[in-house]
Amino acid sequence: MHQPTPLLELRGISKTFPGVKALDNVQLSLYPGRVTALIGENGAGKSTLVKTMTGIYQADAGDILFDGCRVHLSSPEDARALGVTAIHQETVLFDELSVTENIFAGHYLKKPKTGALDWKRMHERAREILLDIEAPIDPKTRLKQLSIGQRHMVAIARALSFDARVVILDEPTAALSHHEIEELYEIVERLKAQGCAIMFISHKFDEIFRIADYFTVFRDGQYIGQGGIEEVSEEELVRMMVGRTVDQVFPKSEVDVGAVVLSVKNLSHPTEFDNISFDLRRGEILGFYGLVGAGRTELMQALFGVSKQITGEVRLKGKLLKVSSPAEAISEGIVYVPEERQAQGTILELPIFQNIGLPQLSTINSSGILSTKAEYEVADRYATRLRVKAPTWHEKVENLSGGNQQKVVIAKWLATKPEVIILDEPTKGIDIGSKAAVHEFMSELVQEGLAVIMVSSELPEVMGMSDRIVVMHEGLSVAELNRADFSAEAIVSAATGGGH
User: Fold this and answer.
1) Is the distance from CB of 337 to CB of 413 less than 8 angstroms?
2) Where a domain ends, among 177, 209, 242?
3) What is the number of other CB atoms lying within 10 angstroms of the CB of residue 208?
4) Would 153 disulfide with which of 30, 78, 135, 248, CB 3.0-4.6 Å?
């Protein structure tokens, strides 16, 4: 592949925070009309690099070159003026504002003579950008009326409203359905055709091999290597990322499955799922697979007492449960690790030890007086066991990588000593090394006699870790397979409504 001249080039970039060298003499080149995948585990330095490229951070050492000329990005405005823009997994948008207001927030178009906001031109420009990315959304619609996928399209439109020349896509597919991911690929192709240089960050190798022309690998804040994507295999990329071969990404241990712990019969909800029945046994990992909208998460939230209007029967160790709140579910021994760990699983501003102790404040502090020491001891036991990487348990959860945030959520629930733990997309958005650690830990849980339900959209994960798989499609349980009968074709066929 003929390598063009880089549009944006980073040379010898270093960035240190107190006690942490986030970037150590790294390099990266982005080419016009090409996609470069930046690959690395959580904590490899990818987010710090993105913030350096978009003017949020300034490097301690090294050079940034744009079109061959050295530039200094002292603020996000400097980066935007060059046409450097980022689309994040968790873009902050404003629910109460219109689509147009979200797209132009912070850089409104004004009338030349009066300086008044030019709403007519902004609505027209918003409509143009949205049509350009094939998102037929009315610019005057309030954001809160849109689906997650449509909001993502608004975030992309916002990024493109800056006349982008360099587009950074940071985990852009995490919240998207299969159909929306295909639309995103088409947008990327159009941006390439316009000569944009694109950086793509993803943990999903199928996406990287589908979309990227080049790759660059970071590990522990250091540059490891780069090259053309067709010159490298997935195994080689994994080895570069983690410094070792991960032969056992799915360390499934053999466990003698015991008696039924949880029995669900004809569980139904008026709009989300209907007539779901299954048994969960001690020492078993029961996988739930299905496409976005299949009703898996809604079913799990019903078991955890979040959803109302539920009919059917749930028994825990033979006892009939009427769970009407999460507090009741926790006291009965059912806990739920949600998919949206930042919004629902943690309080980001609180330290690790307080997050882990949170569900048990009344147990730990039985006298009614807060005992920080007792909370810390509980957190220390479980955070150590889950190998949470942090300088101290006083560290705020918001400062941890995605993988370590997930471990804190799991530690919080394990500390309650549950009978059943529900893991909803337990490795969403975390790297291959952290995934292996979570999977290893799941195997330890079932060896200790816990019963585990795992909801996952990743076929290799659900096949690699489950003893049985329940497949859901449009709110119905359409198949149940034992491990010996697992086949990717049968599972995907059932999930997409094949034979129904």
Assistant:
1) yes
2) 242
3) 21
4) 135
Nearest to 215 by CA among 196, 200, 197: 200
Pair (234, 277) in one structural domain: no
Q: Do 379 and 336 form a contact (C-beta atoms < 8 A)?
A: no
Residues 6+ apart with CB under 8 A from 388: 352, 400, 404, 407, 408, 411
Residue 53 near residue 167 (C-beta atoms within 8 A): no
DSSP conformation letters of 104-155: HTTS--B-TTT--B-HHHHHHHHHHHHHHTT----TTSBGGGS-HHHHHHHH
pTM for the structure as a whole? 0.59
What's the token pair of residue 245?
């071969």
SS3 298: helix
Supply 288's token pair. 């739930």
- Cα–Cα distances (Å) from 342 to 11, 151, 348, 427, 458, in that order, read 33, 18, 7, 13, 20
| Residue 69 DSSP SS3 | strand
Asked if 250 and 432 count as a contact pair (C-beta separation under 8 A), the reply is: no
Better pLDDT: 416 or 396: 396
**Statement to judge: residues 267 and 354 lie in one domain:** yes
pLDDT in tens, 308-362: 889 999 999 999 998 889 889 988 999 998 876 555 667 777 888 888 877 666 6
